[in-house]
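Rather than argue in generalities, we have chosen a single entry, letters for residues, whole numbers for local backbone shapes, without further comment.
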Amino acid sequence: MTTHGGSEPVFCTIVPPHVLDKLARHEDPALSGPARRSLEHDALERTRRRLTTVVGAPAVAAPAATGKPHRTLYDARHHTDLPGHKVRGEDGRAVKDATVNRAYAGLGATFELYLSAYGRDSIDGAGLPLDATVHYDRDYNNAFWNGEQMVFGDGDGEIFLDFTLPVDVIGHELTHGVTQYTANLAYFDQPGALNESLSDVFGSLIKQYTLGQTAAEADWLIGAGLLAPRVTGTALRSMKAPGTAYDDDVLGKDPQPATMDGFVRTGRDNGGVHINSGIPNHAFYLAATALGGHAWERAGQVWYDVLTGGELKKEAQFADFATLTAAAARTRYGAGDELQAVLKAWEQVGVRTL
């Protein structure tokens, strides 16, 4: 396991702060109220995360056996105390609550992709138990990885639906855990955007693996099915066409750029980590579709090699990451199609390989 001097978990949410900020200013209290409460809880969890980083997280018991998931599902019962009441354990029967069952399945799908495709035993590579809490708070418009477990809100029903609905949301958040235990990328500016992009990449691959899709068959959307019917949009983000996921009178227009020409410089959202992630996202999409077949195989393998290889620095820039993907493609596959696809993808998004 590579941690570059120790794991420093960050608080990561699937819905970007700029989306909730816009909702919080809406004149309709049915929209602004849940958004404001969600932002307040997110701020509280960020503070708790910082305190845990200082004093240390509680020790996690080692699993009884490796090579299989060890899932535990909890129900917060619309409160905010974590983890809540245990409702399902590993190998336990499905329960009446569909949200619990979806979360259980999503944890399993994430574990399966990492184990089957990359030989990784859970998110830490050593069989870490996977815990998740559902029904967090009331009308909570987010899902997050807090450095120790997954937490899912039910959404407000007006803008967002149940956050267990898209399996890629679950995979995205758990991949923040993988990054935490490997490259440990800093959560600001370009390294933060890489952090977010890696979660989108592997979240999408988990969905594609679960559905048995090729790169050509995949929709390359993050959070498809999460937006309520009243919202004009298809998802939170699009890797195929960043900036097109939604264009709504309430949410505004998707601000993600697809190339460096549109790179956004901002002091908000830790330097735009959820916005500029569109650039490396698009590079992966271009590489994966150029290679064809199952994206988790060649393109996904290259990205995984970089994430876990030990050379990706905490404060890596896009060009650093691009250079490492080219080196990883050459090391694993030689100077053939894989390397050419990677080099061309980064060139198309305007990122130089050093």
Notes: Residues 1-7, 51-57 have pLDDT under 50 and may be disordered. The first strand starts at residue 12 and ends at 13. The radius of gyration is 19 Å. The CA atoms of residues 43 and 59 lie 24 Å apart.
